[in-house]
Amino acid sequence: RRNILATETGKRYSCSECGSEFVVTRGAEGTIKCCGKAMELKTSFLAYNSPNIALNSNVTGIIMANQLGRRYQCETCGTMVLCTKAGEGAIQCHDTDMPVQQPRKLPSSD
Fold first, then answer.
1. Which residues is 93 bridged to in the sheet?
2. DSSP state string for 22-86
3. Is the pLDDT of residue 2 over 60?
4. pLDDT in tens, 30-42
5. What gap in Å lies between CA 21 and CA 45, rounded to an integer?
6. pTM score, two decimals?
7. What is the DSSP code (8-state) at residue 96?
8. Residue 24: helix, strand or coil by DSSP?
9. Mind listing the pLDDT tens digit for each residue in 48-97?
10. Element (H or E) spanning 14, and its range?
11. Does residue 67 contact residue 83 with C-beta atoms inside 8 Å?
12. CA pair distance 92, 89, nearest whole angstrom
């Protein structure tokens, strides 16, 4: 019997609030959220219409926006995602912000 993960590797998710998009690079039991809501599974590129995003200029405080090309990893379950479309939201798993993964050092070619 195959264990079905909440976020499976290769699945694409999008946020209906800020327009951020992610690809799961390492699946696990967590459920990813953005803008406080569960992200929507993208079934195809053609079936999805990007929402019209209106930024609220009355928002106070510092919000760390999702950054294009950055990897984020859940410290609780290990879910890892890659941001494929930036947005103003903050990606979460287990109701906590997912930290940006720092680039790995490659061995010297000398």
1. 32, 96
2. EEEEE-BS--EEETTEEPEEP--TTT--PPPP---TT--S----B-TT-EEE-TTT--EEEEEE-
3. no
4. 889 999 899 999 8
5. 11
6. 0.73
7. E
8. strand
9. 444 434 443 334 344 568 899 999 999 999 999 999 999 999 999 999 99
10. strand 12-14
11. yes
12. 9
